[in-house]
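hey all, quick one before standup. I had two proteins in the batch that finished overnight and I want to keep them in one place so we stop losing track of which output belongs to which input. First protein below, input sequence then structure tokens straight from the run.
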Amino acid sequence: MGQSEVAQKVEQLHVLLAKIQREYAPAVFANSFGAEDMVLTDLITRYYPHIAMFTLDTGRLPQETYNLMQQIKDRYGVSLQVYFPEAAAVESYIAQNGPNGFYQNVELRKRCCYIRKVEPLRRALAGKGAWITGMRREQAVTRDGLSISTFDAENNLQKFNPLCEWSNTEVWAYLKQYNVPYNKLHDRFYPSIGCAPCTRAITPGEDIRSGRWWWENSGSKECGLHVGKAAWIK
């Protein structure tokens, strides 16, 4: 991947991000600190100050993710809005199912994801005009139909996936070219990083998201942030 090709991709991102900032205010970027999100973090913090950034702290993130959050604050001088799960819901879940009940079956895992991610996301998106994600089509079979822009009826706003057509090679070319910080778990073969107990390293040749909820089949590997309400247990 040459620098000229990366530059062309970046120019397309500038056009889209400028449009989002101008036409969909207040727009927000949901930052989960993956490699893709760091491309958007670098661009938004430097050029699009009116696009706010937030993150969902599930309470079970790896230490490396918290380290990166601090790096972002130190390097870019920005503070992300952090949304936490409702304490009472977490306490109730753990009382009924134990701290690791999500390993037992898909339903309990989805319930945990709903409490720790989906419900906080809805609070984060309330009253917003658009939200931006770092999702790419290459990431999973559940994302191969991803489009750059779509209306999110669940949250009543426009949703943008600016990097949906980017390859993993293009993402890393940007990070290296612009010396962007990234989660150090990537260096230990964690291409997709979520909560610590639900994420593991992968081996060469495995699907990029095979390290997420590895005990489930590939068709269920979403946390609920990017699928319809009907698929999730409340």
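OK second protein, same deal, sequence then tokens:
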Amino acid sequence: MAVLRVLHVAGPLTLTEVAARATVSRPTAEDAVADLLNRGLVRESAPYEGPRVVGRPARRYEFNADAGYALGIDVGAHKILAVVSDLGGDVRATFRTDVDPELAAPDRLAAMRAALRAVAAEAGVNLSDVRALGVGTSGIVDPTGKVTLSGHLPGWTGTHLPTELSGIVPGRVVVANDSNLAALGEHWRGVARGVDDVVYVLAGRRISAGILLGGRVHTGRHGAAGEIGIMRSMGWYDTARLLRDGHASSEELVNRLAAGVAATVLTIDPEVVIIGGGLSQAGDALIEPLRIKLADLCLYPVKVEASTLADRSVALGAIRLALDEVERELFDLG
């Protein structure tokens, strides 16, 4: 609804301001705000602290960010990271647990459920108040949230995560590939803020890419966009193995990483390439040589940045995915 969208974006506002921004009459705005107050989605804000005016100051209203919560979880081979936020996106708590990479699928799912309960408890949030849960996972994910292919998590292929996690929260469970959600997290809270065309390279124990076009995750027809690492000729598969073994020189690493990045850049023509995962900790020692190499390989110079979100980019992207789902529901966006 228009009034709630206005207060979500621009509050606190007076009724007159709400009516003007929502392009409705003042009586309509008043009725809508009264209904939203009753539903707990809007609250009266603190008294205005500006210059004193003659007469009683007009009441001001704002979106109630405490009207519910969003959960986000990053499930990987070696860790599970859960985050909870209010509906305004303010993170209330984070919970991380390390897991065995050979953990069987049922045990990994149990660890996810435990992490979600733990992060909610740490934040003092009732799971019954969670309006949506976003999940980031390695592998290819179809539109229903089923992992159609995963080569990194044992027994994970075929897992339908919305079904497996449906009893945790009353809200919808939405699922996406972890690299894509990392790109979304960087767009929301990281170095890609204000940038709509993004390539995010998750470079650590494995290497994969996530893509944002027009500020939206680009998954492709089968959910496999960005899975360039599957092409052995690009060198990413072997690079990940060299990284795990600790046998890659810095020059070899840059050359191997640049081949796949350049192919993606030449296809997507992004505004920025973000290097995340464990390699982002190398900072300029990696980023600057990579910039130089890409300048030789690409038609135009491309901005390359290291992630500033450390290992939280996927979980924050999952929170953003969940919040997008909540907002579609609240604002009747279909």
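Flagging for whoever picks this up: The longest strand covers residues 79-86. The chain has a mean pLDDT of 90.
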